[in-house]
TrEMBL record:
May be involved in the metabolism of insect hormones and in the breakdown of synthetic insecticides. Its cofactor is heme. GO terms for molecular function: heme binding; iron ion binding; monooxygenase activity; oxidoreductase activity, acting on paired donors, with incorporation or reduction of molecular oxygen. One of its GO terms (cellular component) is endoplasmic reticulum membrane. This is Probable cytochrome P450 313a4. InterPro entries: Cyt_P450, Cyt_P450_CS, Cyt_P450_E_grp-I, Cyt_P450_sf, Cytochrome_P450_Monoox. It is a peripheral membrane protein. Its main location: endoplasmic reticulum. Heme binds at C443. Coiled coil: none annotated. The gene is LOC105230834. It is found in: Endoplasmic reticulum membrane; Microsome membrane. It comes from Bactrocera dorsalis.
Length: 498
């Protein structure tokens, strides 16, 4: 009896592997047929699905938009490699996904990059842990605690103002770095109670390392979607995480060493409670482990820093690109602060309606977080007639929802704060707009974000006029961890006379 040659063995093995993979894919397609038989579905190429189309992240948003236009539908299914994802921009379905208890679990694949040992706090925690931990740290975002943060918000805005003043009158400049430097200090102070001295080597280094972390998370996300996340977990990545966590770890150690001291002791001069204070308190009560303290503190810091910096930069870019709107915002700010902005109080925030509309429009067109993803833990109805089997991942593309022509009209891509006139808001489904997500897994920090952003804008708009040669129509967005600009626009700054 003749034995198989090397080549024949290889071919036979390849055939067996292909048949096994085909059988598995067939089983999977059968498992999800209650979805794919009801929803329009992109199958793409067997085993690759539509993955080949999303390799170029710069084109991702255009591809999803084109998909929506082709399907003419608001809820669809797309196979990426061998996994089907349900996508929806139908506000009624979005409401169901963001508010029903059946959809509280985060989608596994869409958050691989958060599972790096420091960011796997409440953003991605399984439901039971998420409920306990969110409750434990929620006093950080309570109204009275936010009021105690006003001095820090004002100091941060004044810091941004002083740094912008240094760039006035010298042509187009990178202002994103300035904003990041200031917001980094604000997040360290308010979330962790750590004061980083301005302009020190340490300050610059933390920013550099944090940017490197975000770059690595991008890799994580892309490798993760191919099931190859280990390829991005390099020794350098581990060093980055260690560097960023070390100050948090030492602070926790220091706090824990203060045995017997009152739990009310906090790291700041006023009564403001930091996330570390609250987390250590939960540890003393046996609710948190030491690792929980570290992870929740770091998660809150990262969630507040990256998003807030991105939103502040976008608002200044949008002002620079829309001079008439900027003038209207300026006139309103001047009418409330005729003698300049020195110390913004809570009540001042209620007086600037046009600025509110402007900010809402900026977060509509450039939402820092572009999606939320959920996963069913049992067979669950998505909408009448569509049952999602256990394990189905549902993706709400916030960026696309905010630009959907059926909701926002044919000019949905144009920058128009009037979209947020009360009469126009009343005409729309409330789940058409969700820069901070919706439901009980929404952004826990949205009040902090809204207030600190507004205070920064009051100081900036009152003191400077912004302009740019970059055009709004030419912006290309890249879906990084937060929404990024392929080429971040540079801005010119002119100091206002009064
Ligand atoms: C303009 C700024 C901000 C935007 C646009 C924003 C947006 C969002 C969005 C869309 C989510 C939901 C993410 C998801 O479903 O995967 C979220 C969650 C979260 N955000 Fe924010 N955020 C901002 C600022 C902040 C700030 C300042 C903090 C903290 C002080 C914060 C802390 C968090 C946390 C901890 C979560 C997870 C909440 C949970 O799952 O229970 N965010 N944010």
């Amino acid at each position: 009896m003749s034995t198989l040659s090397g080549m024949e063995t290889l071919i036979l093995t390849a055939i067996i592997l292909l048949l096994t993979a085909s059988w598995r894919l067939y089983q999977k397609r059968k498992y999800y047929c209650s979805v794919t038989s009801k929803l329009p579905t992109f199958y793409g190429i067997p085993f690759f699905g539509v993955a080949y189309q999303v390799f170029d992240v710069n084109k991702l948003f255009r591809i999803i938009s084109a998909g929506n236009d082709v399907l003419k539908t608001a809820t669809a299914c797309a196979w990426v490699a061998t996994t089907p994802y349900v996508l929806t921009v139908d506000p009624e379905v979005v409401k169901r996904v963001t508010t029903s208890p059946e959809f509280l679990h985060k989608a596994t694949d869409l958050y691989t990059h958060f599972h790096n040992g420091v960011l796997n706090g409440i953003i991605v925690s399984p439901v039971k842990k998420w409920k306990t931990n969110r409750k434990a740290i929620s006093p950080f975002l309570a109204h009275s605690n936010i009021i105690d943060m006003f001095p820090a918000f004002n100091e941060n805005a004044n810091n941004v103002k002083n740094k912008l003043a240094g760039l006035a009158g010298v042509g187009e400049q990178d202002i994103f770095t300035i904003i990041k430097e200031c917001v980094l200090q604000l997040s360290f102070l308010t979330v962790l109670g750590i004061k980083i001295e301005e302009g020190t080597e340490k300050h610059k280094e933390i920013l550099r390392v944090f940017n490197a972390l975000v770059d690595h998370m991008k890799l994580d996300l892309w490798f993760g979607s191919l099931g190859l996340v280990f390829l991005s977990r390099t020794p350098r990545y581990k060093r980055i995480i260690k560097y960023l966590c070390d100050p948090v770890r030492s602070l926790i150690k220091e706090k824990l060493s203060r045995k017997g001291e009152s739990e009310a002791v906090n790291s700041l001069e006023n009564n403001q409670q930091t996330v570390i204070d609250l987390a250590v308190k939960s540890m003393r009560q046996g609710i948190f482990s030491e690792k929980d303290v570290e992870i929740e503190s770091f998660t809150m810091f990262a969630a507040s820093f990256e998003t807030s910096a991105s939103a502040a930069y976008t608002c200044l870019v949008m002002l620079a690109m829309h001079p008439e709107i900027q003038e209207r915002v300026f006139q309103e700010v001047r009418s409330v602060f005729p003698d300049g902005v020195t110390d913004v109080k809570y009540d001042d925030l209620q007086k600037l309606r046009y600025l509110d509309m402007f900010v809402s429009e900026a977060l509509r067109l450039v939402p820092p977080i572009t999606y939320t993803g959920r996963q069913t833990v049992r067979d669950t109805e998505l909408c009448p007639g569509v049952i999602l089997p256990k394990g189905t991942q549902v993706f709400v593309p916030i960026y696309e929802l905010h630009r959907c022509k059926e909701i926002w009209g044919p000019d949905s891509g144009s920058f128009n704060p009037d979209n947020f006139l009360p009469e126009n808001i009343a005409k729309r489904h409330p789940y058409s707009y969700m820069p901070f997500s919706k439901g009980s897994r929404n952004c826990i920090g949205f009040r902090y974000a809204e207030i600190s952003l507004r205070i920064t804008l009051f100081y900036a708009v009152r003191n400077f006029k912004f302009s740019t040669t970059s055009k709004y129509e030419d912006i290309v967005f890249v879906p990084n961890i937060t929404l990024s600009y392929k080429i971040p626009p540079l801005l010119s700054i002119e100091t206002r006379a009064n």
